[in-house]
Specification:
alpha/beta; Glycerol-3-phosphate (1)-acyltransferase; 12 helices; 8 strands; globular
Amino acid sequence: MDVRGLAHVAHDTPPDNVRALLRLLLRGMLRIFFRRTEVSGAERVPQSGPVIFVLNHPNGLIDPTFLLCLAPRRVSFLAKAPLFHMPIIGAIARAFEAIPVHRRQDAGADLQKNAETFEAARAVLVRGGTIAVFPEGASHSDPKLRPLKTGTARIALGAAAALPPNLILEIVPVGLYYRAKQTFRSVALLHFGTPFSVERIALAPGAEPPPEPVRALTTHLEAALRTVTLEAEEVNAHARYDWRRAITYALKSVLFLTLGLPAALIGALVHYPAYRAVGWVATGMSKGAEDALATVKLLSAMLLFPLTWAAILVAVLLWKGVWAAALIAPILPLTGYVALHFAERFDRVVGATRALAILLFRRRAFLRLTAERHDIRRQILDLGQEVDGLLAKQLR
């Protein structure tokens, strides 16, 4: 992509209705893939002015999808250049005004083009927009952050120097936390941390920031990102459920399981072959890379489930005609959704029944397990606060 192409990315936007439609579609996909998604700290994000979101990167293309769908601001991502050459993903990236980054590890990469990338990112910030960056440089499954690249700091310092006096560039650290990122119907949390402003340094037009401020800001970014990922796990550990909520959920579950059984049986019969095929395809294509498994599952499902619906509709069309096919078309995906929730509700009801049986007939064991659970949670939170204090000292 040349300078003119990057200028188009930086200054022109696709129609809002196209972006809104894609955002709605992606949010639906996240809702199906994840049983529960939570957002915390969104009120901390500045409502206006230039902002850089920096995120950890544990889960491939799922990570940017979360921010694009759930952030309180319109976001442009910095994304690796090979994505723009993929038929579907490339079109989605351009629709969301992503900016290509050329990495040394990508085949045929021209690193000199990153000067244009940085200029395009700075242009978005100078006009008061937001960009999002994964400063680790690549998705991974390591248990901790990888060393951050300096590109984020260079963009931030260059943009801050070019801003009008009345604008301040702020960086918002964002933590992504997945309970089991490769597992269908798991839990995910998007946590926005406390913003901090970027110090303005004097730079000549087009000049690169000096190495020392770049290193200092990168160190600050790393410490802030470590803190926000710890906070994300802490927020998840604080979840609580009371008796009123439990009783309400039990009543809803019984009603849903009673009324939803016929649709659930049809949905399971229709969708189970494609569901199994998605698992086989994803396992084969990801080749053991856990950070890519969820992405491949999602993309495979986007292909295999519509193909299943299309095959059934063609069969109904040939058998019963147009009106029958038109009647069945909206019902097919709905039965799959009902089957999904039916299986989960049934599993939870069985688990809750077992827990209730233990409470009633083995009360001492139940109370001991509950006390141990609370003690483990308290130890985890105490450890998180201790690490948080150490990181805070490093920032001083």
